[in-house]
Every structure is written in C-alpha cells, then in structure tokens.
Amino acid sequence: MMGVERINVLIPIRRRLIMKFTRNDATNQRIERITNHHIIVGIDIAKDVHAAQITDFRGRTLTSRHLSFTNTKEGFEKLFHWFREASAKHNKSSFLVGMEPTGHYWHNLADWLLEQGIEVVLVNPVTTHRNKENRDNSPSKNDPKDALVIADVVSRGYYTDYSPQQPVFQCIKAMMSTREYWSGQSTSLGNRIVRWIDLYFP
Q1: For residues 163 and 111, what is the distance between their CA atoms, to the nearest angstrom?
Q2: What is the residue range of 21's domain?
C-alpha cells in the first residue's frame, strides 16, 4: 500500500514538471521567433488615445519619445508610418506589435494592422502589471511606461498570437460583456434600494 501511495504522490508532481518544461519550451520558441531584424512595438490601449513605444529584440528603446495616436484610421496610419520610419532608421525589416486585449478598444487596431501585413501578438495584463518595476523600480502607471513594459514582455516571449475571429463571434463577445456589465449594475442598484428601504422604513 505504501508503494501505491507513493506513486499517487509522484504522478501529480511529474505532471507539473512536464507542464512546466512544456511552457518553457513554448516561451523559448516565441523568443527565437524574434531576431535582430525585428522592431517590437508595445501599445498601451485606451478608449480614445493609445500610446506606443518601440524597442529592439533586446528591449533597448529605439525612439526618443513615445507616440500618442487616436483610435481612428488616421491614428492607425500615423502609427504605421512612425514605426516604418523607425525601422528604416535602424535597418530593421520585421515588425512585431504587442498589446493588451483591453475591453474591445483594441480590436479595430489589431485587425487593421493585420490587413497591412503586420504581425500582432497579445500580452496578458497580469504579466504587464508584474513587470512594471523592471524598468524604473517603481510600480507607477503611465501610458508610455506601460507601452514600454508591453514591448519588454513581448521580447521575453510572454505573448500569444492574435488571429481575428469571425464577426459573429466578436458580436457575441461584445453582447456578453454588455450583459455582464448591466447585470452588475442591476445588482448594485438593487442593493442600494434595499439599503434605502432599511434606512427609512426600519
């Protein structure tokens, strides 16, 4: 029986080790995709105005200032010309654009970049948050810094590839998010009404 119990303990440990090595292999493969010919564009997504920073595959900043651009086609074109100019200046020929999938504000930009033949990857916001102190030993938040952190995270292989969904699935996701929001608002309002009743009609 002791032997069986020992095996039952060792099997989960072995599975965790296999999963860990598998994740490491996948991360290494993503890192190896990024070469000296790449520029990495990190974008901090917002509702109206996004912020972007450019680094090389080692995380070195290639521009003196960040770029702010609107969440419109004109803004997307401004971004496109900006990193194309930076790539020409630094003799780079490949692009990798990383962003957080924040709400629904990133969809139009990501799809537009794909239409231009630009590779787009997504970064987990939790990973970005954990790596903010790496740049300046401060957890403070600002859009240019967040864009730089996103580029750093991409250069270390912590990203997933983005492939656009069919429009019907995007609509379903948007409706689910809207329903979740209004359900939360309804619950909050109901709790406030109960509180008012308890206060004024004890």
Answers
A1: 9
A2: 1-33
Q: Are residues 120 and 202 in the same domain?
A: no
Tokens at 33, concatenated: 């995709």
Structure tokens given for 66:
């960040």
* Structural domain count of the chain: 3
Q: How far apart are CA 196 and CA 190, in angstroms?
A: 10
Q: Is 170 found in the same domain as 104?
A: no
pTM of model > 0.70:
no
Strand residue runs (E) in 2-61: 38-44, 49-55
Q: Around Cβ 10, how many Cβ atoms within 10 Å?
A: 10
Tokens describing residue 176: 């689910």
Over residues 59-80, the pLDDT tens digits come to 888 988 899 999 999 999 999 9
